[in-house]
Amino acid sequence: MGMMTAFGPRGSVLKRTNMSKTGLEFSVGDHVVYPAHGVGSIQAIETQEVAGMSLEVYVITFDHEKMTLRVPTKKAKTAGLRPLAEGGTVSQALTTLKGRARVKRTMWSRRAQEYEAKINSGDLISIAEVVRDLHRAENQPEQSYSERQLYESALDRMAREVAAIERIDREAAIGILTKSLVKAA
Predict the structure, then answer these.
(1) How far apart are CA 41 and CA 31, in angstroms?
(2) Could you please report the per-residue DSSP string of 97-118?
(3) What is the CATH number of the domain that holds 65?
(4) Which of 22, 27, 93, 161 has its Cα between 20 and 30 A from that of 100?
(5) Does 94 lie in the same domain as 40?
(6) Same structural domain, 145 and 66
(7) Is 38 exposed, middle or buried (0-12, 13-18, 19+ CB in 10 A)?
(8) How large a percentage of the chain has pLDDT more than 90?
């Protein structure tokens, strides 16, 4: 993990390393990825009293799920909280979309579990593999409802991260991903 760029008041760029002044990895306003929920943003860093002990937590909101999560700052790493993917990872994920779909000949229920696990891993490359494997071109047979659900979930998760990185909206990000998928077909 190298330097990250943050935008300060009136768009000025603040360079900082992984640790903030408080010794924490993330600061208020940072976009982060939480494995089970995707892209959220840190609204606050609070101290809460839990069982007589003081616990510092990141308050993360996920607008698309209308949800707020509190993650203890000391447990953030083990919970899988990570910064947005860097450029190289995004390029690799887009290249993954262009690859040939790899569909195992196992039962759908087993494959569906594997896809679900990849989506919830929070790993952009794994999510791209799900999008690639479940994508259907216009001339291909129709997907089952559960395939479609997993595809939409993976595409949405990937699009939200690309949107946050590129500072574009989700629809524009889906456009970028779809272009890579169409080239693959």
Answers:
(1) 4
(2) HHSPP---SS-HHHHHHHHHHH
(3) 2.40.10.170
(4) 161
(5) no
(6) no
(7) buried
(8) 70
Instruction: Report the CATH number at residue 172.
Output: 1.20.58.1290
Single out the residue in 27, 59, 83 at which a domain terminates. Answer: 83
**By residue range, what is the domain housing residue 177?**
87-184
DSSP letters along 113-171, please? HHHHHHHHH--HHHHHHHHHHH---TTSPPPPHHHHHHHHHHHHHHHHHHHHHHT--HH
pTM, two decimals, is 0.81
Judged against a pLDDT cut of 50, whether residue 10 lies above it is answered with no
Rounded-to-integer distance, Cα 145 and Cα 115, Å: 14
How high does pLDDT run on average in the chain?
A: 86
Tens of pLDDT, residues 85-144: 999 999 999 999 999 988 888 999 999 999 999 999 999 999 999 999 999 877 777 889
